[in-house]
Amino acid sequence: MPVEFDKTIQGPASVFTQPEDVLRDESLSREQKVEILRRWEYNVSEEAVALEEGMPGDETDLLRRILIALGAVAGSIDMDLTAPIKQHGLSRRSVGLQNEK
Hints:
This is XRE family transcriptional regulator. It comes from Sphingomonas psychrolutea. By secondary structure, the chain is mainly α. It has one domain (5-95). The protein has five helices and no strands. The chain is globular and about 40 Å long.
């Protein structure tokens, strides 16, 4: 069953159990998969920053798995093109989507 992209981009973890599921979803374009994984990466990075700053929660390998999935769909990730904040935020250019506005 095709996923609703607009709903998915708002909360990838509410639609997909694991990042690898995004890769397997044939109803999504490459660009949609990249956007979903970028959003998920940002959300998980925010949680990691909160943990670092003393908020309760558990560390997982989810961020690593998201980055691996993102690399699988987008190719190499240029970490020099991330935002200068703790969460980093991967720009579209950093994951090979050169038409970022």
